[in-house]
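Weekly puzzle thread! Below is a chain. First person to post its structure in token form gets bragging rights.
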Amino acid sequence: MVQRRAVRARVHKFDATGEISAGPDSLAGEEPLEIQLNGEQFSVTMRTPGNDVELIAGYLLSEAVITSMDDIEEIDFSAGLAPDGSRNYNVAKVRLRPGIWSAEAAPARSVYTSSSCGICGTAAIDAVTKTSAYPLIPASFPVDLDEEFRFPQLLSAARIGELPDRLRTQQEVFDKTGGVHAAALFAVGDDPATEPELLIGREDVGRHNAVDKVIGWAMANQGLPLNRTVLQVSARASFELVQKSAMAGIPMMSAVSAPSALAVDHGKSLGVSVIGFNRRGRFNVYSYPERVA
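Winning reply:
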């Protein structure tokens, strides 16, 4: 069975005049991925198939299960079978390095995570917030949300304003279907005015999955922490995306849409510069604006 990121379908199209036409359309692929850790069922997430190793790595980092790719010894997809007996890659058996994780010590969680929610599988409120192995604020600094903590400049306003258009060049599946989110990771240099390097872009029906795929790629190819990078997303800036940024040590996250109040508060507490409404060269910075040159 071939994993399909986009699926062709026949549709009937109606317009305001009452005209009806029939023809093909492309739909975003969406299938479940069951993740098992050391033989225990851990999560089932709805995702667009493809780049699943990256997705698993990024997801396990965001869940504070692992801190690097070295914590994963094997990912085996052989158990995923379609009704016709062909392999569908929808079950991943993950074997972790000894001592990394145990089912007994892990917080209780429900199994299913929808494509619209990256933390819905967490059963307890206390387990929603994770502690990053790569803190952006020194532990010795007493964080006060009412006082500004100064960070060095990271990227110029002009370069930040260009990020959504650069992300747009990576949205091949969106061009076909209009039904997926996207995330891209950019590496910044010493000069904030220099164009950042586009490291990777990924798409998925779940915005959190797209971010996990980007971070998973970086874990395998760049290593952590990602403290000289900027994350650009096509969606709104939610609490879970800010948290995923912090878990990977990403100091700046930019979104084309609005942030939530909790996302901004979380960005302030974790040291993430949260940027929203990044469109046509204009944007709002909700936390740590000093990183913008």
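Puzzle host: Confirmed. Bonus trivia for everyone else. The chain has a mean pLDDT of 90.
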